[in-house]
Amino acid sequence: MASTSSPTLSQAVLARPISGNASNSSSSDRVSLSLSLSGLKFSPLSSSSSRRASGSAHRRRLPAPAPTPSSAVRPIRAAAVETLGTATEASLVEKSINTIRFLAIDAVEKANSGHPGLPMGCAPMGHILYDEVMRYNPKNPYWFNRDRFVLSAGHGCMLQYALLHLAGYDSVKEEDLKSFRQWGSRTPGHPENFETPGVEVTTGPLGQGIANAVGLALIERHLAARYNKPDSEIVDHYTYCILGDGCQMEGVANEACSLAGHLGLGKLIAFYDDNHISIDGDTEIAFTESVDTRFEGLGWHIIWVKNGNTGYDDIRAAIKEAKAVKDKPTLIKVTTTIGYGSPNKANSYSVHGSALGAKEVDATRKNLGWPYEPFHVPEDVKTHWSRHVRAGAALEAEWNAKFAEYEKKYKEEAAELKSIFKGELPAGWEKALPTYTPESPADATRNLSQQCLNALAKVLPGFLGGSADLASSNMTLLKMFGDFQKDTPEERNVRFGVREHGMGAICNGIALHSPGLIPYCATFFVFTDYMRGAMRISALSESGVIYVMTHDSIGLGEDGPTHQPIEHLASFRAMPNILMLRPADGNETAGAYKIAVVNRKRPSVLALTRQKLPQLPGTSIEGVEKGGYIISDNSSGNKPDVILIGTGSELELAAKAADELRKEGKAVRVVSFVSWELFDEQSAEYKESVLPAAVSARVSIEAGSTFGWEKIIGSGGKAIGIDRFGASAPAGKIYKEYGITAEAVLAAAKELC
Amino acid sequence: MASTSSPTLSQAVLARPISGNASNSSSSDRVSLSLSLSGLKFSPLSSSSSRRASGSAHRRRLPAPAPTPSSAVRPIRAAAVETLGTATEASLVEKSINTIRFLAIDAVEKANSGHPGLPMGCAPMGHILYDEVMRYNPKNPYWFNRDRFVLSAGHGCMLQYALLHLAGYDSVKEEDLKSFRQWGSRTPGHPENFETPGVEVTTGPLGQGIANAVGLALIERHLAARYNKPDSEIVDHYTYCILGDGCQMEGVANEACSLAGHLGLGKLIAFYDDNHISIDGDTEIAFTESVDTRFEGLGWHIIWVKNGNTGYDDIRAAIKEAKAVKDKPTLIKVTTTIGYGSPNKANSYSVHGSALGAKEVDATRKNLGWPYEPFHVPEDVKTHWSRHVRAGAALEAEWNAKFAEYEKKYKEEAAELKSIFKGELPAGWEKALPTYTPESPADATRNLSQQCLNALAKVLPGFLGGSADLASSNMTLLKMFGDFQKDTPEERNVRFGVREHGMGAICNGIALHSPGLIPYCATFFVFTDYMRGAMRISALSESGVIYVMTHDSIGLGEDGPTHQPIEHLASFRAMPNILMLRPADGNETAGAYKIAVVNRKRPSVLALTRQKLPQLPGTSIEGVEKGGYIISDNSSGNKPDVILIGTGSELELAAKAADELRKEGKAVRVVSFVSWELFDEQSAEYKESVLPAAVSARVSIEAGSTFGWEKIIGSGGKAIGIDRFGASAPAGKIYKEYGITAEAVLAAAKELC
């Protein structure tokens, strides 16, 4: 972290602009670029590298080739030295880019809602990525080894829909473009992976996408390190991302990009759409930092494409350069004009988030020389893009053959990798989970959680994760593995740093990379407040991330109210498609992990204690699977005098109170209510068997907000909880002062029965 | 934002280290430092600037002065040229610093809980700030013009408690130090402004404090620009902050610091405790970015103090330099050793968050030559610090006299400023709020909100705020004011940029600066997820921030589920000490603002619509003040057949269904439930008058999670809401498909009555 008074080399070359002007680019620069081995996918024409190396004519139009796309395609990276070719006749590129622009314009116009500005400005990047650079199979959007693309500036989703449409994805047909932002369409207002195959992650909330991209690149690096062999790079893809000024301002993006720099994720290539416009107008009013300098500080390689509107070769060269930098992620700052082509609205906030309007659409058609009807894709553009279906199938077939070879040689690794990309859990994995008896020693559920994490990592190849600088408090270290660091990416302990929001979003990227990946991440439960933006996207985008949240109540003691969650259980119970689990002991912790692993399309939040808890009689993994279940009962006929309901660390208090009441002759049922969501999903019969409607004498106890408990205890019940902030003192003292005690349960129960 | 290939001047001098070694500091450097007009507070000895300028002897011990503190004190910045003096005999400084260290060690040891590492490493900075630099009055911690100090690394709070104790604050007596982290003490585990006068803000959750500090510095700049006169700088203080590696990793810190750089907040001076240790060990495992370079990108001035352990003069020089830089905030990177002085635990994570243990405490006493009993403050140290009580009183008295002069000359400004620092709202301010009749045009509550904001800004001098780049969507612009920019800080429209978390934390800083400041901030309601960390601190720290949250439901339409809040109302209803308000029309919006303004120690969240709503008969400001109230009723004897309950945009649907039911002869009551918290606070009689226990036929409708509604509607009621994520389509379509309709209310009511 030391700085010196003289600039470092990287400072000196910081954000070296790639200008569109041949006269100020030295030939040696260009030569060095074309020496790189990694390059662009398609180079159907004769190599243009010699032209480029000569430093001349690099923006002049090339003579049109015969339109024979089938023979012109070289769909794979087979050549030892790939060349920096302009993929097709230049005017066709221009036409394709304008097709993208007008598909976006037309769809937004038809919906009278949406964001045309970004697609119009980013169409050149989009075209080059999807038509020339990226390796994918349109007919199998889930092909494991595909390059990933993330539109972090998700509002510009018509860019991606247009590209998926041109590339031949079945998810975005012409009728889908025409039903943009309409009920039931596959083209919603922001990209959603679960609606539109070809979309990798769900974006729109700014900054999430670039952090997802970090996750995708991180896991690629991990899997490559684990499974690649000297004779077979079976895992080998890039992650591309487009992010805008809004993403750049978000803290989550900085967090994730800082980690990406730390880990040196060289196959992450992010395009910063530097258009100087955000919703409120020119970025001058709020955002005047030097993004380049910040990213240099974060350890990224930075390239500046000055002319992102028409400098296609500059974009190509930047990608080439980015690929050549193996040890750092690259930020390609592409200066564009938002709404490029619109004569009256370009470069203004008015083109950001509204339809252009019929008049301006006409003016834009005129300005860009676009004579076509709305939604029209010119035949030559269609023909040109049509090769991707064949090329993509060939790419996947080639990879499948490669994998078959790999499988022969490396049986064990192949089986693991297969389980990761197929999402099939190994048979009997759940037997690895520990079980406990009441005689097992008392322990904190955070420690019991660590036993589960370590047990699962042994049997689940896709299981990995870490903590936001609290590994030793959250107890999340996998003991048989080392740290995932720049030079040891094959390890499974990820050190996220104090970056909760970035951590959550990175885990979403990992989970959505391949169905067999099961990322977990950890911090104190109260700091879910820092990462809730990412956690909600886990829930929405069906990312089965496991959130290991320790220090789950006032039971953490002296750290005080800033660190003591109160309303957090309720806040997640209210969130759709997420499992809030609060286990009471070892068996329930194991049960919570079983549930979390099984629910691959639903994230889980595990609330775990800092303090020791006894192993309670009656708890079980099977019980947890029901969400709420009876752990002890001395009633008969499903007619207890009172039902005591607890969760997590307070289940013990309910059990103690029950002992007392039973001594006094009462028929008492104790129910563990570990997950409200799972209980909701049980049959009416089961629910009645646990909480009979006829028994209104119910007492709940939980060291958190009572908000919502009326649903469980009914109007006649009593909820013991905490509806104010916590306090700084030893845990036992706070429990007592706040009335979270067995005595309180006893007293409440006596009032009711 | 342009970068060039040659380093800029600021790059060239980036993080110029201030070393403790006189031989490598040029005399011209030192001379330039001592030319600054703003300087250190105390320079009781004869000026040492000539010694320093000579470039020699700048670390040798000075001869001890006679201990006559009363005559030695020059408590004010009266001298035209202040000097860089070592405040006291050097060994006394050392002794004072060790006193701070051992008070922290002893308190943590007694509590057997806490964080000794930071106070031991940062004691030198702490001493210099509180003993030599900062202007404050220990006997009036709320003196308006005091310098503000924020310990962003709040876990190190024993540093601040020790300093407050030495400085003579009544809030931290010896017995308070001895009850560190105990029940009922004024020295909780993390600093809490509402527990400990002298603590400005509540910190602990990392990154919040530096963002609060940005808020404090921002509002100082604003008030200075509005109220200072050529002949009277009536507002004039610095904001100091200490932040650690953890804070630096948090996105919220980057967001706030980016805005601070944009606004050029020159009186913000942040010390980065660069100790290379976080909880999980060396920062090398997760945090290897160049913080200096990042902050240079953010537009800050950067200074590096290489030896923060004993380089006291270097720290002093850095502060002097920072003060001389008027147009940029300064980051002083101070390289320290965590746990400095502990022979076996210094520079390791083990000293971060645990007591040293008796043996290591002994070893540290020996190592630092500390012969005293626990909690002992040596007499000479006590005597030395004792001057602050007198000096502080003098500072305040001087300022009061200055203000009296100001008041004579600038009556109107003085009255405004007084209302800001006394927190007295101008009489009759609430009359400015607009009212509406059912004939007033239908409008979105976001627009009605803008009418309120503009009305309030006219009558409340401390009212200001802005949006996270959504001013034109949130409708938050104050039309009679311009933008608060670097060169126009007197304006009241703050452009926060797309930095929700930073925005919330900055507003906490503003709110806690002076009791008459009423900051508001805005984004889409769903993005409260991004800023929940700051919002919870608003609630905990009693910061009356107004959160203007528009686009509050599926009613926002096409932007889809990523932008549609579902669980957010419930999530805030569960949070202690925050008001969740969802007004239904113009009168209720005005009522919500009245409540929000009145509640200066409780933040408010206003959920507002994007879509138009009619002005409903029966709504009122007075009704809103009750939280829940009847807007229409055709029953008698407090025995309606059914009670229909709605909030916000769905109140209209309840009213429509009531009309239908009444046509069918039913006695129907319609209740607006704008704030659950306020309703909870009403008398039992009032509650019974609105929701009579005998009437179990209740239907609620709200376009959000039904979680929690059982409390209002009881076991016999029906809650109409949304317990899944939203969808992308025109709003009316989604409402219909999701069954959020008057018809659904009607059907549910018919089932119940």
TrEMBL record, chains A, B:
GO terms for molecular function: metal ion binding; transketolase activity. It is an enzyme of class 2 (transferase). The active site is at residue 500. Belongs to the transketolase family. Its EC number is 2.2.1.1. Its cofactor is Mg(2+); thiamine diphosphate; Co(2+). Residues 40-56 have a biased composition (Low complexity). It catalyses: D-sedoheptulose 7-phosphate + D-glyceraldehyde 3-phosphate = aldehydo-D-ribose 5-phosphate + D-xylulose 5-phosphate. Keywords: Magnesium, Metal-binding, Thiamine pyrophosphate, Transferase. The record marks 115, 352 as: Important for catalytic activity. This is transketolase. Transmembrane segments: none annotated. Substrate binds at residues 115, 352, 446, 473, 551, 559, 563, 610. Mg(2+) binds at residues 245, 275, 277. Residues 40-73 are annotated as: Disordered. Binds 1 Mg(2+) ion per subunit. Can also utilize other divalent metal cations, such as Ca(2+), Mn(2+) and Co(2+). Binds 1 thiamine pyrophosphate per subunit. During the reaction, the substrate forms a covalent intermediate with the cofactor. Homodimer.
